[in-house]
Structure formats: structure tokens, C-alpha cells
Design goal:
Helix 1 packs across helix 3, helix 6 packs across helix 15 and helix 10 crosses helix 11. The protein has 400 residues and is of the alpha/beta class. It is globular. The strands form two sheets. The chain has an eight-stranded mixed β-sheet with strand order 5-4-3-2-1-6-8-7, with helices on both faces. A six-stranded mixed β-sheet has the order 11-10-9-12-14-13, with helices on both faces.
Length: 400
């Protein structure tokens, strides 16, 4: 069974083609960057032959990028697109829908209903899925929702202190995101430690970040909520904030609600706190080292927020066996890990500075004898989505 997994960003498209019958072999990878601009790029790799390439291209919409991807696949990875059994997507959010779903018009409508709380994610995904449907008519399109991993949250963790009937009627609750990555990180740690009765804190840190308490393989708390604007700060999104700041900006500062939304969704986080230096933490770190006080504050605030979640979730679970880092920052940010974990020996979290500085994917960077293990992992969201899509297809075929 060959499954094509696509990760759709607002200005990007990434893909991997798996042969699930051959040990989950990756047949091809690639993607398009700067979709919607005049300076797009397409890159590809045929994993069977090792051939690869990168070229300039103009992709006004995801449709053109998808067409280029399909032609690249037919040029080497498969003889025909008929060999592809389905296309899987790591979809984000939908009202009243989670788990693994065929992406019917009803499911797309449920996604559109929650575009208000996932404005950077749902609209481009909906558009891309419809373009896939037009280019590959009849091909099963399957979505694995990021919220699915967090369906095990108890009411005490997911309920907001709003009127109960309003929350039930409008689906207002903590949902959590980055489920595929967090599932991979927690499963990896369980396999590495040889047991599942673990208390873990999994940190998917990147342009958008999730910190999740995982007990016995199940999500029991997470920092993201109904949308992705809360938790620790993100590249250009706000993170946790007193909601009355919004009222103050509108009522006292004369900003419109649309201006406030733009501010919180696109001009805050690393970008805002750094004084406009960058939404990329690498740039913020470099500027902080060069003497920028704003960038130093942004970096220290980010790491401080992570530290607080580590303490809170350890207390909530009544102990901790391991901290697991993944995502672009979690995997590569030695400085972030060092700052966030500093002073947590009281919780049994003891980092080895030398191991941390030279960490490789799959490495244990805890000090020898540390009660709590600390892992750095190359997360693999795509294989989680591929496995879920395969299971849905096999279940359907078995029932026929």
C-alpha cells in the first residue's frame, strides 16, 4: 500500500510517499516553498535512486504546487499515480470532528466552521484538499486531526470556566494540537525506556509549540486550547495573555477588533517581543547575543514559560520519568533546552551540558544518574498520519 502524506502550510507544501508494505519505506520526499509569491521553489528527492533537485518556480496557489509534486512523483517514484492508494493530511481542527476521517464536504464544512480559531491553518488546508480532489478525482483523501491525541483529556483539564451550556452548545473547550508529533514522541520514549507506565512531558517546540503531559501513553493536559493562540509564545502569535488586554486595546487605545486580531495572530510572539527583529528564534538568539535587550527578553520569557509548564505538569501528574524534546526548536535549540531546564534539579531534571551541546536525534542528554531522563528526538508526524490512513483503509476493505 502506497500512501502519499501532504503537509500544507499557508505558503508551503511538503510531501512524503510511503510504501507501507515494505517496512514503511519512504519512496519520495519534497515540497514547494513560497507558494503565492513570484519567487517560489520546488525541491524533490527520489529515495530509491538518490536523485534529487531544486528549482525555481511560480506557484500562485497550492494547486500549481500540487501539480508539480504529482509530476515529480510520476517521473520516478511511481510509474503511475494509480499506484497511490490514498493521500493523507495532518489536518488541524474541525467543529465536532476529530480522529481519522475521509475528507468529505461535511468534514471540510466542519473545518471551515473553526477557521475562526485556526485562521492560519484551516483555510489553506481546505483549499488544498479541494485542489487535490480536482487533480486526483476518486482518490481517497484522509485526514488525521491534530486534536485526536488529546481526546483523553479529563474534564478538569479541558473545561473552561464559562457557562456550561454555552461551552456545550458552541464546542468551547481545550482541544490541544500537534497530536501526531506528540504521539510519536511519547511512543518513542516508551519504546526507548521499555515500558508504557510512564509520566512524560513532551515538548514539540517550533514556530508553533505544544507542551503536553502524557501519562501511561495518554494525553492528560496540554498548553494549547480551543485554538493555537495560547500556551508558550509562538513565532508571531501571542501565547498566554490576559484577555482584558484585548478590551483595553479596543476601548482605550482605539484599535479595531480586526487590528487586534492582526496584532495577536501575526505581529506578536518572537516577532513582537523582539521589537520586530524576527519571528525566527535563531535570529532572536543571534540578536540577543549581539546585545539586543528586547531579543534577550523574548528568549528568556520563552524559556521561562516552558520551565513553568514543566513544573506544573510534574505536579499535576505527581512525578516525572522523562522530558522529550522534538520539533525544530526542541530538536536543535540547545540554548533553549539549557535555559528552560536550568534549576530544575528539585524536580529530578538534571541536564548534562556537554551532551546537550552535541545532541543528536535519539540522544539522552540527562546527567548520568539523573532521576528524570531527557531525550532529543527527530519527530516523524508523517509516519503517524500514514499509519492512521492505512488503518482506516484496511478497516474499510475488511468490512466489504
Amino acid at each position: 500500500m502506497k500512501i502519499l502524506i501532504c503537509n500544507v502550510g499557508s505558503t508551503s507544501l511538503k510531501y512524503q510517499l510511503f510504501d507501507m508494505d515494505r517496512g514503511e519505506q519512504v519512496l519520495a520526499t519534497g515540497g514547494a516553498e513560497r507558494v503565492g509569491t513570484e519567487k517560489g521553489e520546488f525541491y524533490w528527492k527520489n529515495c530509491l535512486t538518490g536523485e534529487s533537485g531544486r528549482e525555481a518556480g511560480v506557484f500562485p496557489t497550492h494547486g500549481e504546487a500540487i501539480s508539480r509534486m504529482l509530476s515529480a512523483l510520476e517521473a520516478g517514484a511511481v510509474a503511475s499515480l494509480d499506484e497511490v492508494d490514498c493521500v493523507g493530511f495532518k489536518v488541524v481542527h474541525a467543529k465536532g470532528v476529530t480522529g481519522v476521517q475521509y475528507l468529505t464536504e461535511d468534514v471540510l464544512a466542519a473545518m471551515a466552521a473553526f477557521s475562526t480559531v485556526a485562521p492560519a491553518h484551516n483555510p489553506p488546508y481546505i483549499a488544498a484538499i479541494r485542489q487535490f480532489r480536482a487533480l486526483l478525482p476518486g482518490k481517497p483523501l484522509i485526514g488525521a486531526f491534530e486534536t485526536a491525541f488529546h481526546q483523553t483529556l479529563p474534564p478538569k483539564a479541558y473545561l473552561y470556566p464559562l457557562p456550561a451550556d454555552l461551552s456545550r452548545r458552541e464546542g468551547i473547550r481545550r482541544y490541544g494540537f500537534h497530536g501526531a508529533s506528540l504521539e510519536y514522541l511519547s511512543s518513542w520514549a516508551a519504546e526507548r525506556m521499555g515500558r508504557r507506565d510512564l509520566k512524560l512531558i513532551c515538548c514539540h517546540l517550533g514556530g508553533s509549540s505544544s507542551i503536553c503531559a502524557v501519562e501511561n501513553g495518554q494525553s492528560v493536559d496540554t498548553n494549547l486550547g480551543m485554538g493555537l493562540q495560547c500556551g508558550v509564545m509562538h513565532n508571531n502569535r501571542i501565547g498566554d495573555m490576559d484577555p482584558y488586554v484585548i478590551f483595553h486595546l479596543v476601548e482605550a487605545c482605539g484599535m479595531s477588533l480586526d487590528e487586534v486580531k492582526e496584532l495577536l495572530q501575526k505581529k506578536s510572539g518572537f516577532l513582537g517581543m523582539s521589537g520586530g527583529v524576527s519571528g525566527d528564534l535563531r535570529d532572536v538568539e543571534a540578536a540577543a547575543e549581539a546585545g539586543s535587550a528586547d531579543c534577550r527578553n523574548a528568549l528568556e520569557s520563552y524559556c521561562y514559560q516552558i520551565k513553568k509548564y514543566l513544573g506544573a505538569y510534574t505536579a499535576a501528574m505527581g512525578g516525572l520519568d522523562a522530558v522529550v524534546f522534538g520539533g525544530g526548536i526542541g530538536r536543535n535549540g540547545a540554548g533553549v533546552r539549557a535555559r528552560a531546564l536550568a534549576g530544575l534539579g528539585c524536580l529530578g531534571i538534571e541536564l548534562d551540558p556537554e551532551k546537550n551541546a552535541h545532541a543528536a536525534g535519539g540522544g539522552d542528554i540527562s546527567r548520568d544518574g539523573s532521576p528524570v531522563r531527557i531525550f532529543v528526538v527527530d519527530t516523524n508526524e508523517e509516519i503517524i498520519v500514514a499509519r492512521k490512513a492505512q488503518a482506516l483503509l484496511q478497516s474499510e476493505r475488511a468490512s466489504v
